[in-house]
From TrEMBL:
Official protein name in the record: Endonuclease VII domain-containing protein
Origin organism lineage: Bacteria, Bacillati, Actinomycetota, Actinomycetes, Micromonosporales
Domain of life: Bacteria
Keyword vocabulary terms for this entry: Endonuclease, Hydrolase, Nuclease
Pfam families from the UniProt entry: Endonuclease_7 (PF02945)
GO molecular function terms listed in the Swiss-Prot or TrEMBL record: endonuclease activity
């Protein structure tokens, strides 16, 4: 015996699948008889998907992406058309399940393509995103420094130095000088203390005779041991 209700009050036959279902299984439609549509919800949703796919193809020339069945803990990457574990997808707060929609290799490839298309390369993107300048401004600033590091004068420096409080670009430095300022936290007192420290501990040569030098240092002598 069928579990479906008999055709009558409170039920309707779907025009697509022909099944007789309660009115609650049909979407609300004030223009239709009884305030419900002519197609049951599954058939209506299927019709909506086909209609959207047709409009998308006519308007933009694109086809709707078909859902690919995947096992639990996996996701389908539409770029490489592969099913991979969730760990193969980058983390994303905006993505479903906290993961992005493309696997890591495809995600990285898309990022490189976007940077190349919008900025002409990753270098230009990095300079503008982090320092607010482009390669043209970088080259001009380096030229004004004589194409050398603004501190040690080493040739061909490649690192932008900026004020961490204001974000203003200060100059172009070599790797060592740029890292050194960072280690000293841009603190002038620390840098001055380092200079004084080097002055007091660096070995120095004292001329005592033409061509003869005495190596001296101002480092304090060790205090006498308790046993002496």
């Amino acid at each position: 015996m069928s579990d479906l209700p008999e055709r009558g009050v409170g039920v309707r036959m779907c025009r697509d699948c022909g099944a007789i279902k309660p009115l609650t299984e049909f979407h609300v439609s004030p223009k239709r008889k009884g305030g419900r549509g002519s197609y049951c919800k599954p058939c209506f949703n299927e019709r909506s998907k086909k209609s959207y796919a047709k409009r998308l193809l006519e308007r933009e020339g694109r086809q709707v992406r078909e859902n690919v069945p995947v096992p639990d803990g996996h996701r389908h990457c539409p770029d490489c058309d592969s099913v991979k574990p969730l760990e193969a997808f980058p983390r994303s707060k905006a993505g479903r399940g906290g993961r992005g929609g493309y696997c890591k290799p495809c995600h990285n490839a898309r990022g490189r393509e976007s940077k190349q298309r919008l900025y002409g390369g990753t270098r230009e993107y990095h300079l503008r995103a982090r320092y607010g300048i482009g390669q043209v401004e970088f080259d001009d600033l380096l030229w004004r420094q004589g194409n050398v590091c603004a501190i040690c004068r080493a040739p061909d420096p490649q690192h932008v130095d900026h004020d961490h409080r204001t974000g203003a670009v200060r100059g172009i430095l070599c790797f060592n000088c740029n890292g050194g300022l960072g280690q000293f936290r841009d603190n002038q007192h620390y840098l001055a203390g380092a200079i004084e420290y080097l002055k007091g501990t660096t070995w120095q040569r004292t001329l005592i005779h033409p061509g003869v030098y005495r190596i001296t240092t101002s480092m304090r002598e060790r205090p006498p041991s308790r046993s002496s």
